[in-house]
Structures are given as structure tokens and as C-alpha cells.
Amino acid sequence: MATLLAHIQIKPGKEAKWEAIMRDMVAETFGSEDGVVRYEYWKGQEPLSYYCLLSFKDKWAFYHHQMSDHHEGHDFADVLAGIRLEYIDPVEGAGGSLPPTSDPALPDDASEAMRTAQERFPLDIAAWWSGRA
């Protein structure tokens, strides 16, 4: 499983365009990807702040999502002021039935797209999660 919380800042005046992109991304993601578990966008309390909760069956499904035509086809540079991806891990019995985030090794026969995604979005498993359910 790969679960992330994206902390997103939007450029002033771009809220409507951003929200239209997000509606399209959610529709395309659920309509064309088998490995998505959760994909939700939220407005934050601070102006121009948004969040996205993304959860995929494994990191390969996440990488497929990141490299997909519908993800790569939007002009994110026009609307994004900043984004930080935070890998998260569910607390057993309190994490919405999501399995733990894991980081299997890249297989030797991985495609170039998967190798690129691994370089751009390496999973960051916090050391303090080890041994904690």
C-alpha cells in the first residue's frame, strides 16, 4: 500500500481552475485506474490551501497514477504555488481499514516510466513506524 497526504498551496485567483482540474483528476483516476483505493481533495482552513488524501494498492499503482496521461496532461504550474507530499501510515484499528504503507524494491525489469517515478516520488517510510501497528 502507498498512502499519502498532499499539502497543496494554490496561486491567488486560481481556485476555480484548480477545483476544475481536481474534479477531472478524480473522475479520470477512478475511471481508468485499477489500483486506486482513496483519492480525495479537501479545502483547508487557510486561504489557498488544499489537501489530497491518496491511497493506492501498492507503490506501483501510485507511480502509474503519477505518470498517467491524465495526470501529466494538466498545467499544474499555472495553478500550484507549492506542494509537499507526506507519506502516511494508518494506525491499526483507527486507519480507515487501509493497510500499512510499504516500499518494495524496484524490480529489475521495471519500465522506464516506473524508474522515473521512483526517482521523482521515492517513498519515505518513517523510521519510528517500525514495530508499531
Automatic annotation (TrEMBL):
Cross-referenced Gene3D superfamilies: 3.30.70.100
Entry annotated with the keyword Oxidoreductase: yes
Signal peptide: none
InterPro entries, alphabetized: ABM_dom (IPR007138), Dimeric_a/b-barrel (IPR011008)
Pfam families on file: ABM
Single annotated GO MF: monooxygenase activity
Key words, A-Z: Monooxygenase, Oxidoreductase
Domain ABM, first and last residues per copy: 1-72
The name this protein goes by in its record: Antibiotic biosynthesis monooxygenase
Organism for this UniProt entry: Erythrobacter sanguineus
